[in-house]
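Annotated sample (chain length 880).
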Amino acid sequence: MRVKTGRYLIIIFFQFVSFLAFTQNQQLSFERIGTKDGLSDLNILSIMQDSRGFIWVGTENGLNRFDGHQFKVYYNDPADSGSISNNYVKHILEDSQGNIWISTHGGGLNKFDRKKNRFIRYIHAPDNPNSLSDNTINKILEDRNGKFWIATLNGLNMFDPATNSFTSYIHHNGDPKSLSDNNVSTIFADSRNNLWVGTLYGGLNCFNRKDNSFSCYKSDPSIEGSISGNEISSIFEDSDHQLWIGTSGRGLSRYDYKTGQFIHYRNNPATNSIANDNIQSINEDDNGNLWIGTENAGISLLDCKSKLFRTCMNDETDDHSLSANSADVITKDKDGNMWVGLFSGGICLHKKNADQFNLYKHNASPGSLSNNFVLSILEDQNENLWIGTDGGGLNRYDQRTGKSYRYKQSNSGNSICGNFVLSLAEDSGKNLWIGTWGGGLSKFDVKNHHFTNFKYDESNKSGLSSNNIYEVMISRCGKVLIGTHGGGLNIYDEQTNRFTHFRHNREEPRSLSSDEISDLLEDKAGNLWVGTFDGGIDLFEPKTNDFLRYNKENGNLNSNSVHQFLETRSGLLYVCTLNGGLNYFDPSKHLFIPVDSKNKFPSQCIYAALEDQKGNIWVSTNKGISRYEPKTGIIKNYSIEDGLQADIFKPHSAFIGKSGKLYFGGINGYNSFFPDQICKKPYNPPIVLTDFQIFNKNVPIAKDTNDHSPLRQDISETKSLVVPYNSNVITIGFAALDFASPLNKVYAYKLKGFDSEWNLIGSKNSANYTNLNPGNYVFKVKCQNRSGEWSPEIHTLNLTIVPPFWLTWWFKILIPFFFLVVLFGLYKYRVRSINLKRITLEKLVNERTARIAQQSEELQVLNSELKKQSSELQEQKIME
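Output written by the structure step:
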């Protein structure tokens, strides 16, 4: 009879439990970057970060430079010989001198002049044996001697910058020491200064620099330890100096330097293995995991210590999964972020700081969560992790075996009562109590896999008062306390199988303040605290069955909507509220007081709170998670950019495990983390200038000395600018090259000589000035780091506004001299004029005087004649 019962229970168990023999892996979160963000094309062939901090991206349609805010795209212009030679960019390299080299498909090699934004082209010339051997270049490499090695479709080339010439190495039939195949797919220089050359059909080659010969490694099934395939796609050396070779169709090989043999890693669906045998790219993260990009199978992550693989693929239901499954390039930047270039998928960025918070959520994997809305979390005495979801039922994750189980409501007589699991509690008998929305209460005997369900029955006055169970708590005396939504507080006595009800009574001020219960807590002194959605907090007095109210109306609480209680190890009681922030209880004043902090929480909507082993309080909000240090009052905030499932979490969906690990549930899965491992490094990103405009128009770089553009070189390379007085309406663009926190950047700028204070502008990355007076200025810009502190990195630009000539110093000095000269000239002119007038007057006087003298003489003569005639007349009269 016992055997039959056992068989029956097993059958029923498998009716409502989905057994999933899969490990619940932490899931990687990616930020997608595509054409909507300004990327020129979705087919990504190369990604490189330069010494300045810019990210360069090669696509099938243009070369891109990314500063975290925007892309600058370089296209081929047939009419401009200084443009890039071809839009199909296959590889990008920065050399030891800071020059950018770009290989193209069909356009040869390009060297980029940063200052002038011009490209110098190197192409195949059939009549020149010292030119490139082919214009399609797969990869470029600079060796320790400053020489460049170039993988082409027609052999291996070595470029010597000193002679500006190319030397070609090609395959010669009958010569086993020549290159095994002319189609060179990839090249790599290892830490031992070996130059490895991968070919498309001829296997792997190692170049001997002494005699310019090649040693060839080819796949041979009859030889144990030979390379797995002859179509070499990628070569990489990890931090342990192991050499990895990716092949097309034959998986991954690891080269053993001691034995000269290769260890193979092939896809095998029956075992833990690499996702696909078509390897496109290889790189390594800061945790020592090998990232292997495949064709059409996503990324395989290999833990080099355990030799176990896990796979990341596109999930159409998850916007933070890979956007496509062919990973043609994987690059790690200086900050440890992983950049994945995909075919038809653009760029996917996995941020290093996102690894601080483990993320678990629903995806296509059968071992994942049944639903992403996580409403409740509990770790039981056997270290099983239970996760209640919003519509997906209950999940159990066995942390010892790594297996996952799902429990959903079914029509069978032995199943959970509902799929909307709001609350979880474990009693001393290791039974799990489950509160659901709309389904009532379930007691789960974990050992025997048996559910006992309790539902609201209007005819049963001592039964459950509501099927909407928001909180379940086990008291120290073993009673089950149930907070309902609409049915008040219930206390269940298992011995009598009866529920005692406590309801709100408008006529009774010492009754429960609301029938909508949000949380319950029994403190160290045995007091029962009841949180409600709209009535504040009640303190239960068991002797009288009365409730003492703390609410907004009596001034003892700043919000009547309570989410969760937290009692610390020291006995301090905290309460999380909606729009009232985090409060603590002061027993001497009998009121709840908002926490006093040096900086604020990102939101006053606090959903849940946990205390870590150092006494810090971690709270979840609708804007991320925050850590509050009661001793210092300092708050540190974390957002989705730090790896959180989302910025919005769920009320009282939180738990602290025996190991000290914290769990917080939200709308996109749940996060788990050890507080000691969470740190915000004070990374101070470099700040660069990205744009310069006059009258809202981009200023071109001057082509030559006759060009009057004030921008003599690219603004990112410019240290000082001279602008004419009539072009003094300017805009300066800038960017902090921190790709892990682009949305959290806060900028401030100041123009010394004009601004007296820093201008705080948030995430805006440009500064505008109009009608600046002529003079010398210093433009300064800075950014907050991830810790919220101002970075010491301040970028400066000397700016001179040239005055018009009438405001120049030399003109101001010449003005008085000019006036003196004019006055002196006027004086001299006046003197000369007076002299001329005097001379003229004297001449006139002399002329007139001479005339008068002549006239006087004539008068005298006339007078004499008259006198003579008069005398003659008198004499005549006398004679008569």
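Annotation: The two ends are 210 Å apart (CA to CA).
Annotation: The chain has two helices and 66 strands.
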